[in-house]
Amino acid sequence: MGIGLLGDGPRKKRSQNESCNMCAVLVEPLKEKCLSGALCDLIANMLDCANGTLRKDETCHDMSEVRDDLQLLLDKPSIYLHDQDMGRLSMTGLQFGDTVFGRNAELSTIKDAYRRTVSGDRELVTIYGQSGTGKSLLAHEFGKHALSDGGVLLSGKFDQLEQGKPFSALASAFNQYCGTLLQNSELTQLKQKLAHQINHALGREAYHLAKLIPNLATILGLQLHYIIHDEGCIDARKRLQYLLCRFVEVISNLFAAPVTLFLDDLQWADSASIEAVNQLLLTGGLATQNTSFFFLGCYREGETDNLNPLWTSLCNNNLVNARSTEVKLDCMDEHTLNRMVSETLCLSPRLTRTLSNVIYHKTKGNQLFVSRLLRALNKEGLLRPSLSRRRWEWNMKKIKSRGLPDDVAIFLTDSLRELPDKVQSALFVLSCFGASSESAFVESQGLDRNILENLEIAVAEGLVDKIDDQYRFAHDRIQEAAYNTKPAHKRSVIHFKYGLELSSLLLGDEDTSASASVLFTAVNQLNLGGPLAVQDKSHYITAAQLNLRAGKKAMEMSDYETAYSYFDSGISFLRKKHWQQHYALSLELYSLAAKCALTNSDHTSLKLLIAEVVAKAHFFEDKLDVLYFETCALAISSRLPESIERGVEILSKLGIELRGGGSRMEACVQETKDLLSGYSDDEILNTRRMTDPTIIMAMKFLGKMETGMTQIMPESAPHVMLRIIQLSLSHGMSPVSPIGFVHLGSYIAKLGDISEGYHYVKLAHTLLDRVGSRESAGEVICFGTPVRAYVEPLQAALKYHDEGYAAALASGDIIQAALNMMQLSMKMLFAGVNLQTTREKCAEAVNFLDERKMVIFMMNQQCLQKFVLKLIGTDEKPKYVSAEEENILATNNSVRTSYYFQGAYISFMFRLFDDSKHYAEKHLACIDNTWANLFLHHAVHVFYIGLISFWVARKLNDGQQWHERGKRSKLALKKWAESSQWTFQNKWYLLEAEELYCNNDFDAAKTYYEKAVASAKSHKFVHEEALACELAAYFYLELGEAEKATELFLLAHEKYLEWGAFEKCNSLFKFVEGIFTPVSTFDKGGIGTK
User: Fold this and answer.
1) The organism sits in which domain of life (predicted)?
2) Which site in 10, 110, 253, 1073 is 20 to 30 Å from 136, CA atoms measured?
């Protein structure tokens, strides 16, 4: 019912024309005074109601509608109060803003996740929904919030037709960010600081990032064509992931702000980019804990599956230790759609309600469909600006009767067909190259002189956006519709033609970022065409050669998966008899494809590629690359004996023989020392570089074998070291040479001369910088740091393994990264680092190893993890490795040694006598045939086996053998204490006290127990201070000095609690409770705290 504004009583209903004319007269004076058209219309509506005249949809039905309209005029005057320029709109057509409608709850969810990230959590949010539901618009709205909040925003978009470009979206995101910094002249000092910090954090490895991010090269002042790809990198993709993490860390710390990475259209993401995001989210992906990283992604619902790399990585939230939130967007409801139409037309929702109702039923609320339909209605004149009324008006009858398909894709395709042929052709050309292209690139193709002119028409139609000099489809559905205007077989021929035309631009071009972009685009076009599109036989080889070139470029950018796809495509263009007619091209394509297959862990493809090269290569030297990849694959898959056997066989064919092992380790080390005695350190460091390609390849085989042999053939490993050093001195230094010297230092230290071993370890570190490559830095640090721990304070050595892990990842050496991570967590445990921190590091290492299926290392690491979890007291269970576990435990001595020591250590710490004795005997039975190198765990094992031995010797009537074992342990610790009092003095003192206790020399034992406690305290080994107090307490308890024993038990409990060994505290409490009842001096609640 209408509302009465001018009195009561019934009124005679006037005709519509009469009413309109009368109201127009009433408000005309207001319009003449330039009063807002919206306000005049509202007054006219109110007068109609007052006069009892209803104007259909424009009528105010009650006072609340008047109030709502007035409130909108106050709240959003720029939309609802101020008049629009209808003359301009009649020329430009309907315009859409970037307002997000009806997504407040979803936006709040994303903001909450972001706030948690800023507070220190790791978080990722993915927005998904059907095409056209406004996913990207919501993400961009959040981006405004992140920037206004002081954050850093990196934004990129995946493209269905650009999946062959390495790290396309990720590279674009970082490159655009660096470009923004370059364009801002006010940030000169900040750019200099950024360049300094990147160089400090990454060193020469920044070159590899610059290959991916050209604008970063400009910031760093690098010339890209002088950057040489490091062929020695074992896993360049992992290296790049690590470098990107460090880059994010530098950005975050420099700006003291959280970093948000937004990637759109994840359904077309390449696995390399997703793995990089995964690495950013990993707990250890960033070098510090001060970096806040937030990931936001969008993907189209219904176009991903469980095999997609996105889901393999991002769904495994436990692995990346990050919280995941999914935000689903449905189509708009009718109320929200009316808000969108209302604000777009700048009319009250009351006035647009019936129009919105019709549009809703035709589009089902799909935002893209709605916007395209409104544009179409405007173009057809069914929705038009009225100059007289100063507002939009529409023909409701014709809009209702307009036919529409149910699917937005069909609607878009039908809409495109209504465009002029030349505009359709221009849109098809643009669609062939992805979601966007630079105008200069489009124009340079020479495909159509008027292509830019026709694209401008598409811009006017709202189909394409022009931002700066870049044309970008307004939505990926529009790109798809334009692409599908031609059938598939015609598209293939056109793609191949475009690829050939673009490749002509590469002739004589240098290695620049611009040429790389053209190369990838050209080759992608050729491959989209495929061999069936070739019409000239000479083009088969052209396509194969260009794929080879693109694959090499992708390898430089560290995307081995994309590189493999290029090499595989290149092979597909080869015709019959290609090995005879194009031998060099065939050999290079197959060899590099094999390298990529190894890096991608695609062992099936690797095996086939190796077999092809071995069968078809003319010379043995031509097979060396793939044979090296074969030995690497065997080593990575835990088949070390086969890997070593294959390496020995290949070296023999190269004329390099390795002598047998037996008991000649000491003789081999001495022979190496004698060889080096004729050279000073300076002469070694200044030895010429190795240049013989065959010897360089042999060195790579030797370097790969060295690590494997130290694990399973410790007596033979020194012979490999000797050959590395012999070849280095006779043929020059190579990147493998430092490996030989660091292993020599480790072997010498293992044989007892810590000082001389330490000398060669430092020499190896210095040599790293002299050979011009740090590809072996991870291994040098991994095997050198344990020796340093026998000279330098143990706590100081922890940082070296952090550096080793970083160096190994930077060179893509996953094996050495794993070993450094494992050694770091082990040293943390026995350096007395808080157990909760050590627990996190252990979990990080286990996740790292589990993700990469490194079963042997995983089993070793789980032994350490069990120590930590048992000491803390938690229900958490270590991950089960696999069915391989029993077989590995039976055959791998290093794993067996760790397993039995774990049992002995845990049993000893919880005072389980029989188990301690059992596991110690098992451990001692296999300890003689373990690593040839010196590691910290050797000293740890000797220390605890010594303690167990003296305990067993006291308990058994005939314990002389155990007493001798304990004595040998004590003498070993005493000798090591001579090289590092800091690390080993307290351990020697404690073993001395235990032996004196066995010998019933109680007064002397008291002195050494006191020394052990004092030394552990002064050298900051809180866990060993606790252990010394506990063992001394047992000693005093047996002597009958209960008061002293209680004092020491209390102190032991305090220190164990400080260490974080809560379960050990509980165990100690229970023991003391059974001896002293009541136990008044112990706080049981404190002991039980976890």
Assistant:
1) Eukaryota
2) 253
Question: In the structure encoding, which two tokens stand for residue 179, read together?
Answer: 């470009």
With beta carbons less than 8 A apart as the criterion, state whether 811 and 778 touch: yes
Exposure string (b/e) for 81-120, b if CB count within 10 Å is 16 or more?
Answer: beebebeebeeebbeeeeebbbbeebbebbeebbebbbee
Upstream peptide bond of 10 is cis (omega within 30 degrees of 0): no
- Residue 392 CB neighbour total at 10 angstroms: 22
Helices (H) and strands (E) in the chain — how many of each? 54, 10
Q: Mention every residue, 6+ apart, whose C-beta is less than 8 A from residue 1.
A: 61, 62
854: left (phi over 0), alpha (psi -120 to 50) or beta: beta
Q: Position of tokens 């005029």?
A: 73
Return the closest-CA partner of residue 364 out of 405, 412, 417: 405
Amino acid at 1039: L
- The reported pLDDT for the residue numbered 614 is 95
Q: Name the token pair of 881.
A: 């490795």
The residue among 562, 7, 44, 622 whose CA lies nearest residue 270 is: 562
Task: Report d(CA 455, CA 614) in Å as an integer.
Answer: 53
How many CB atoms within 10 Å of residue 201? Answer: 17
Q: Report the first-to-last Cα separation within the chain, whole angstroms.
A: 70
- Give the number of residues written for the chain: 1090
What is the full DSSP assignment across 288-349?
SSS--EEEEEEEETTS--TTSHHHHHHT-HHHHT-EEEEEEEPPP-HHHHHHHHHHHHT--H
The C-alpha torsion from 232 through 237 and 240 to 242, rounded to 10°, is -100
296 φ, ψ (degrees, to nearest 5):
-130, 130
Sequence letter at residue 206? A
> Which helix (DSSP H) or strand (DSSP E) does residue 399 occupy?
helix 396-401
DSSP assignment string, 969-994: HHHHHHHHHHH-HHHHHHHHHHHHHH
For residue 333, what are its two tokens?
């409801």
d(C-alpha 570, C-alpha 593), whole Å: 10
Residue 283 CB burial class (10 angstroms; 0-12, 13-18, ≥19): middle
Q: 486 φ, ψ to 5°?
A: -120, 145
- Angle subtended at Cα 202 by Cα 201 and Cα 203, rounded to the nearest 5 degrees: 105
SS3 762: helix
The Cα–Cα gap between 975 and 793 comes to 16
3-class secondary structure, 386 = strand
Q: If we measure between CA atoms, which residue out of 843, 811, 807 comes closest to residue 825?
A: 843
Question: What are the DSSP calls for 578-610, one per residue?
Answer: HHHHSHHHHHHHHHHHHHHHHHTT-HHHHHHHH
CA distances (Å), origin 320, targets 644, 736, 775: 34, 33, 27
Strands of 323-329's sheet in order across:
152-157, 259-264, 293-300, 123-129, 323-329
Q: According to the model, what pLDDT value does residue 929 have?
A: 59
- Separation between Cα atoms, residue 850 and residue 912, nearest integer Å: 32
Which helix H or strand E contains 1030, and what residues bound it?
helix 1022-1039
Residue 471's Cβ-count burial label (10 Å; 0-12, 13-18, 19+) is: buried
pLDDT, one tens digit per residue, over 80-129 is 888 888 888 888 888 887 788 989 999 999 999 999 888 877 788 999 99
DSSP 58: G
Q: 117 by DSSP, 3-state: which?
A: helix
* Alpha-carbon dihedral 993, 997, 1001, 1004, rounded to 10 degrees: 20
pLDDT at 155 over 50: yes
Q: Which residue has the higher pLDDT, 891 or 997?
A: 997
What sign has the CA pseudo-torsion 363, 366, 370, 372?
Answer: negative
Which helix (H) or strand (E) is 158 found in, with range? none
What is the reported pLDDT for 855? 80
